[in-house]
């Protein structure tokens, strides 16, 4: 192990959004859920975490930088992930560079970690899911741990529950498991990202002044006080999971949309059933639901599904690109940008949907007619400034290693952030 070398690994991992929700733990330390959940992985081109991990005999402590700022690794969730990966570390040999790390050396060696989210960390977009999945995936590669993605998912789960679902692309199921030690609580891939590639996902990042109840606190209060959660976990979700898997396999968008919306609404009902009640959606979230519900009911079959996590942001899943363009027209009619915002910073991600919608600039937004399903004599109000921005994306792939040195976040000669 002698010498003054630094070995680095860089990985990129997507975030995910649950269509059958995870809410409530049966073990807080191991992060074991009270029900299975299902998610769709989002295209890392638009929402992902990049993490570089480095090891060197010259490092004297484990250190981490998140979005360029040093953070403490002393929290239990980071410590759980580091301990579990170290326990599975194997020998590493790089003959070219004269590096040899024996299995036992990993217990003494320290790591540096730098992580960057390509989307706002505090915007309620599940950054910890992508973050912990990326941390575990990158450390496993660095330490030559031989576990498969499902086994790694059980480790990422101990950092952040939803992180286990970010170890795969496409549609993913987190199986709650039965074991007390959590060994069978892990993620499996249902289908990869190519299986249902018509789907288009539009996220509305809703302006919010309010500090939300953290998921950890909210879940604990719900488990302690909500009878509706017991009913949901035992009676509702098991049946919904079977139906959702079937809808995904068959590309049955009508069932998929019905199940996704119903499950989001039940999750928020469970939050209201909590003592004290938890409010994650706001008036803007409710207006987005009304817009989608009215449109879906005016069509023969649902065009769009909505789902909301522990915050006011809407995740809208359109059946195809054509529907996504029609959805974007409706969203921009009801939620135009405030006067000082330009379109290029208002619609992010896959901007080609904006072109499909026939919108080039702010003047096209101002000229949009009310959607035809609104039959009022007076045009409905336009809620300017209620949405901070939209992100257009699609189902995406799972974690990858980045071999291009220029994408690493740590300097290979110092082990410090570039
Ligand atoms: N929490 C939010 N973003 C994160 C990241 N990239 N890594 C670890 N934890 C995070």
Descriptive overview:
This protein has 418 residues and is an alpha+beta fold. It folds into two domains: 7-194 and 402-407, Ribosomal Protein S5, domain 2; 200-393, 2-Layer Sandwich (Alpha-Beta Plaits). It contains eleven helices and 19 strands. The protein has helices at residues 76-87, 127-142, 149-156, 215-225, 227-249, 253-272, 283-298, 321-334, 343-346, 352-356, 362-366, and strands at residues 7-14, 16-20, 25-27, 32-33, 37-41, 48-56, 63-66, 69-71, 92-94, 99-101, 110-117, 171-175, 186-191, 200-206, 304-307, 314-318, 347-349, 387-393, 400-401. The protein has a six-stranded mixed beta sheet with strand order 8-7-11-6-1-19, with helices on one face. Strands 15-16-14-18-17 form a five-stranded mixed beta sheet. The longest helix has 23 residues, at 227-249. The chain is globular and about 75 Å long. The mean pLDDT is 96. Adenine binds next to strand 11 and helix 2.
Keywords for this structure?
418 residues, alpha+beta, Ribosomal Protein S5, domain 2, Alpha-Beta Plaits, 2 domains, six-stranded mixed beta sheet, five-stranded mixed beta sheet, 11 helices, binds adenine, nucleotide-binding, sterol biosynthesis, lyase
